[in-house]
Amino acid sequence: MRMQKNVIALTVAAMAASVSLAASAETLTIATVNNGDMVRMQKLSGEFTKANPDIDLEWVTLEENALRQKVTTDIATKGGQFDIMTIGTYEVPIWAKQGWLLELDGLPDDYDTDDILPGIRGGLSMDDKLFAAPFYGESSMVMYRKDLMEKAGMEMPEDPTWEFIGKAARAMTDKDAGTYGVCLRGKAGWGENMAFLTATANSFGARWFDMDWKAQFDTQQWADTLNFYVDLMNDAGPPGASSNGFNENLTLFQNGQCGMWIDATVAASFVTNPDDSKVADQVGFALAPDNGLGKRGNWLWAWSLAIPAGTEKAESAKKFVAWATSKQYLELVASNEGWANVPPGTRKSLYENPEYQKVPFAAMTLKSIEAADPTNPTVDEVPYVGVQFVAIPEFQGIATSVGQQFAAALAGQVSVEDALKSAQALTTRAMSKAGYPK
Amino acid sequence: MARQVTLNRRLINTGVAWAFGILIFFPIFWTILTSFKTEAEAISLSPSLFDFDWTLENYQEVNSRSNYPRYFMNSVIIAVGSTLLGLIIAVPAAWSMAFVPSKKTRGILLWMLSTKMLPPVGVLIPIYLIFRDWGMLDSRTGLVIVLTMVNLPIIVWMLFTYFREIPGEILEAARMDGAGLKSEILYVLTPMALPGIASTLLLNVILAWNEAFWTLVLTTTKAAPLTQFIASYSSPEGLFYAKLSAASTMAIAPVLILGWFSQKQLVRGLTFGAVK
What we know:
The structure holds 2 protein chains of 2 kinds. Chain A is α/β, with parallel strands linked by helices. Chain A contains 19 helices and 10 strands. In chain A, a hairpin with a 2-residue loop joins strand 4 and strand 5 (129-130). The termini of chain A are far apart. Chain B is mainly α. Helix content of chain B is 74%, strand content 0%. Chain B contains 13 helices and no strands. Chain B is globular, with a radius of gyration of 23 Å.
């Protein structure tokens, strides 16, 4: 009887303890973008909650554009719905300047901030202070078919020029067989054709604005960029290229219809996966092309975890951000899913790891990331931060309108000259409305 | 000969109607089919109609990654709640405009409809701020209120149109027999307008079920409905077409089944008065 009483007392005590533990647990709401690496983080986050039983995690996983709209509305109005947000290198400098993000100071000693790749760290910092921790980073590079290149009697150098890409693309094209030398983004949008074309324009010496924030689409460099792109796509691109974005080109490449594809380094794991790609064993990698001017046509992007300034759970949020972007997390992914699935592009130590060096696209991803400098993106000096974008709030709207003009030029609806004239006029108008030109 | 012509015409009409129906339904059919394919087959440039390795792995993945019942219950509560609240407001409003019209009635009706022409994003920030200050962000109550407001013009317009079709003489006769306002609405008007009210109800459940802008912006986790469930499987970078299709199929299935079983009621209600 006495024993029974003890058991009951113990059970009640245990229940009370668990209730009080549950009551004291802090719930972090995390907004994240839906891609393979982030979904994997969500799956592995049980390890974090196991080590931190006083913290619960709630996930809001959304498509990139929906997420961007949602977190922007929330942070701009101090809605306080999120404790951690996944944002890109475009948002970080703008939001940090507005005072919307917490500075990521006081991270654990073993976090090793100096291990973060300098280009990525620069893109996520303001006045040398880190405002978001990179979860994965990417650049762009050339993915090409070794067999088609060989058939064309050419050899891809590690650091091709645009002239070589043009020649190779035309040589690889066999329209009757449905093989096109090069697949490039053509779909209008600031994150679609304009990401590619802005990065390409950098290698042609073009820039969006001069130091007085005056639009530069009336320069020879932009004319050269757009003429080269339209001519190349007309000669060696797939039909209907003005509707093609990342996913469309990925499908074309995986189906063996592209000789080359210049796009995000994250695509390397998709095109080399034999489950998804018909050409998995024939893919080679090279740096994005240059024009001999000292700049390559590759971009720089990082999906990063940031903490909104209004959160009341800053300490727990910092704990999670430090866990998800740490060296230990990379090892956790590697032990669960192999080194090829580790989030790339953020830490020097990952690329020094002999196991990771065996991943076929690892070295080229690092070289591509290192070739991009968000504070010095093109040949001439610029007043903005960003390689394939300009980190000002107005850029999304302006670049999407410019992208529509360039997509129309690619589709043959307007001439290159007219598209550039329209781009110059609409950018000048929007920037003077926003009060930029001095 | 005349019978032959009529038969031919009927056959042609039936054929055209079926062809049109299949064309309209094809995207949904294709989504359902894609949900049973592997990701590689889903993005294939030469997709096969039925000759592929059928798999349930997308449904398993979606179920393991998301709490579908929670999204589903939120959708049901938000759609049904906003429709019922809308009807409570709209029935008296439509009754008064149909049977006791004033000089301003037409203007009010047109003004109500004009609010549907405003892009929702134009009022996003003020509504978000109100929700934030009233603690209604990520709450089902908040969404019920917003979706009621969003769909109210359509509910009022539909009910107004149905009520107008009811002959005023019947209501007058009821009044002469001593029916008061309550009895008139409950025992005379409502039974006659029932098909119209039912189709309004069904249509609004569907509209609220499918509403994506406000449900995506104003909810995060607790009140998130199926629209957010779908959005979590859409991705601009990567291969998620088959999983997205599985999530879409799971989201549209309830409303598709509802539409299938109530199609007679819907058609009857939507064409109510059209033959007069």
